[in-house]
Backbone:
């Protein structure tokens, strides 16, 4: 039998394996990605402190809280005291301290609270402006005046008064709390500030597509006491227009003689629409001033229709129209319109007594068929070369009236003739008067 010789095998010891620590992802847990690059100090907004309150804030770096940072707090008003003017940030980066106001302090606005801190080589700073007080007030009273039962899109005013022991309080912040399911109602401004007589004013503002019942309460902190008004309940309604309606007032005998004033109302779903544009169009002989009137708070619009002098009377019509939230409505009125040839009438008013070297005022009016003539030039002259008008040519206003000043030289005594002449179309109208001149 053949023998097989075995070779000796070298045994290699197994290499030792050590545990490896795998770091968490960058920025996780207690392993920040690097040094702080963008530290930020933020003071919380306060608004007002009455007798006592809290000043707080936080420090972040690269959007992460910084713990153990000392914050230095200062006030521009000596009557505000910090319980701890060097608070230290906690694990959430926040800091806070209690503050008190010296008793008897009247409402003081513009108090600046400054916070500073050092993070590495960076100095951080933030500042807020507040009002402080600690007046003696045994019986504070805050009222909120009645509000209409239903408020439309244009909103309404919120008014009331703050008193302490019967004395009006000025400069207090009045905050409005509105309970609304849709959150489509706000008060502006909020907070409001009381005036010298203790009253305040704000506006209830509605956003579109709201139909609900809300409650409103006014409140403030005065003399260290929280005081609130009674809570008012109101229906707010501001939905897109469904039933647009435009109406026009009736013209007397449906007749326009030279000019006429027209008015109308724009409403939707029974509610007047304010600050809306109405378009006026009509027959070629009709002129509208203005042609696109704006509705007032009651939804009312007005305009003047004018017809040129010399236009024979004839059938005409005009239309008022408006578009709101995609809804259109219009109304047309048939009239008889014209304007007889101009028959200018001029009046001239002179001073009752003598006109001295100090001067005097001459006034007058130009009309036609009882209507004032606007924008017509009137020329004024005198019969004496030393008695002159400061402006010899004047123009009539909207009411057809004009005025000029006459100026005699020193030492002139007697009676002087004055003459006013105006041209209306092809017709001229003149008026003469005598005035007395005295030193």
Residues:
């Amino acid at each position: 039998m053949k023998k097989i010789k075995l070779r000796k095998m070298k045994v290699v010891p197994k290499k030792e394996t050590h545990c490896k620590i795998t770091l968490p992802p960058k920025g996780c847990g207690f392993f920040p990605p690097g040094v702080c690059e963008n530290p930020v100090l933020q003071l919380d907004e306060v608004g007002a402190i009455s007798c006592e309150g809290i000043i707080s804030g936080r420090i972040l770096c690269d959007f992460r809280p910084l713990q153990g940072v000392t914050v230095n707090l200062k006030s521009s008003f000596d009557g505000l005291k910090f319980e701890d003017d060097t608070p230290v940030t906690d694990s959430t980066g926040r800091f806070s301290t209690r503050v008190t106001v010296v008793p008897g302090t009247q409402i003081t606005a513009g108090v600046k609270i400054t916070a500073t801190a050092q993070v590495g080589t960076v100095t951080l700073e933030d500042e807020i402006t507040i009002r402080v007080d600690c007046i003696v007030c045994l019986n504070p009273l805050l009222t909120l005046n009645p509000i209409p039962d239903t408020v439309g899109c244009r909103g309404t005013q919120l008014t009331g008064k703050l008193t302490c022991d019967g004395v009006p309080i000025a400069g207090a912040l009045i905050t409005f709390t509105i309970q609304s399911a849709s959150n489509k109602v706000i008060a502006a401004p909020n907070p409001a500030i009381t005036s010298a007589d203790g009253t305040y004013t704000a506006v209830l503002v509605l956003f579109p597509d709201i139909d609900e019942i809300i409650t409103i309460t006014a409140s403030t902190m005065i003399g260290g006491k929280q005081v609130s008004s009674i809570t008012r309940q109101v229906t707010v309604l501001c939905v897109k227009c469904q039933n647009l309606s435009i109406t026009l007032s009736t013209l007397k005998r449906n007749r326009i003689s030279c000019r006429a004033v027209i008015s109308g109302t724009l409403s939707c779903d029974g509610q007047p629409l304010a600050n809306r544009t109405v378009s006026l169009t009509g027959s070629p002989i009709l002129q509208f001033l203005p042609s696109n009137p704006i509705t007032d708070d009651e939804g009312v619009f007005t305009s003047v229709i004018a017809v040129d002098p010399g236009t024979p009377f004839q059938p005409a019509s005009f239309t008022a129209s408006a578009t709101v939230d995609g809804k259109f409505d219009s109304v047309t009125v048939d009239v008889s319109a014209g304007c007889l040839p101009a028959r200018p009438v001029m009046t001239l008013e002179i001073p009752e007594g003598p006109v001295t070297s100090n001067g005097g005022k001459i006034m007058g009016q130009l009309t036609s068929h009882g209507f004032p003539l606007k924008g017509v030039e009137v020329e004024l002259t005198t019969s004496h070369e030393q008695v002159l008008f400061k402006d010899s040519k004047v123009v009539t206003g909207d009411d057809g009236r004009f005025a000029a000043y006459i100026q005699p030289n020193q030492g002139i005594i007697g009676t002087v003739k004055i003459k006013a002449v105006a041209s209306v179309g092809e017709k001229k109208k003149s008026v003469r008067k005598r005035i007395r001149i005295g030193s």
